[in-house]
Specification:
This protein is about 30% helix and about 25% strand. The chain is α/β, with parallel strands linked by helices and about 240 residues long. The chain is built from eight helices and eleven strands. It has a domain of about 170 residues: Purple Acid Phosphatase, chain A, domain 2.
Length: about 240
């Protein structure tokens, strides 16, 4: 069984197309999405339409849940205010059918791999789509977030940062982000969106597990053009983080 795991598309259909184009050249049995499909990007409806066609399971991300019940908070800084305004615009771009599709997303998705081995998919953790699991998460915190769930491989998104770590008898992975990958600049310590889209391949064959964390080159000019042409608020600001 070979499964492609995608996550955190964030309304970037240009990036999703790049990943799907590569997956067309790489045989996979299933594609599963870990959520955060349409918010915070210039092509929310287009991203949903492409995902529908895949007919694969999708996890409910925290941003997906927000789009179903959009509520502006008391933003305390300019960045948060801009993101909320972008997300509110994204919610307005989704059709009734798009929103019905988001309502089919599940808190967790479990898939068989082979010979009793399973893959458990979630967004933040199996307990909550806002939990954060990173490579440095203390074991006690990880035990609390994974408590009550078991699988050979567990896959979560939310952090936009690829990860592979071992916890007891479980391999825990994060495929990174399709549409809003993060990278911290070495000399300035500032975050930027690098020119690639990220995903993972999980392969289980005859008792052997292999995991690939992959990057797909991205046409940054096309991403920025999509933002500027979309009518999305703060498009120039959003596009300025790409490089």
């Amino acid at each position: 069984m070979r499964i492609a795991i995608i996550s955190d598309i964030h309304g970037n259909a240009v990036a999703l197309d790049a990943v799907l184009s590569e997956l067309n050249r790489v045989h996979v049995d299933r594609i599963v999405c870990l959520g955060d499909v349409a918010a915070t990007g210039p092509q929310p409806h287009e991203a949903v339409e492409r995902l529908k066609v895949l007919n694969g399971p999708v996890v409910m991300g925290n941003a997906d849940a927000w789009l179903l019940n959009p509520m502006l908070g008391a933003a305390t800084d300019d960045i948060t205010r801009r993101i909320e305004e972008i997300d509110l615009w994204c919610a307005g771009q989704l059709s009734a059918a798009d929103l019905d599709y988001l309502r089919t997303f599940r808190p967790t998705v479990e898939m068989p791999l082979d010979s009793g081995a399973t893959l458990l998919c979630f967004h933040g953790s199996p307990q909550s789509n806002t939990h954060v699991i990173v490579s440095t998460t203390p074991e006690d915190d990880l035990e609390r977030m994974l408590s009550g769930f078991s699988a050979s491989v567990m896959a979560g998104g939310h952090t936009h940062t690829p990860m592979l770590r071992r916890y007891q008898d479980v391999t825990v992975i994060n495929p990174g982000s399709v549409g809003l990958a993060f990278e911290r600049a070495r000399h300035t310590d500032q975050e930027r969106n690098p020119p690639w889209a990220e995903y993972a391949l999980v392969n289980w064959e005859n008792g052997y597990l292999s995991i690939e964390l992959r990057r797909v080159p991205l046409d940054v000019a096309a991403v920025i053009r999509a933002a500027l042409d979309s009518g999305m608020p703060h498009a120039e600001w959003w596009g300025g983080d790409w490089g």
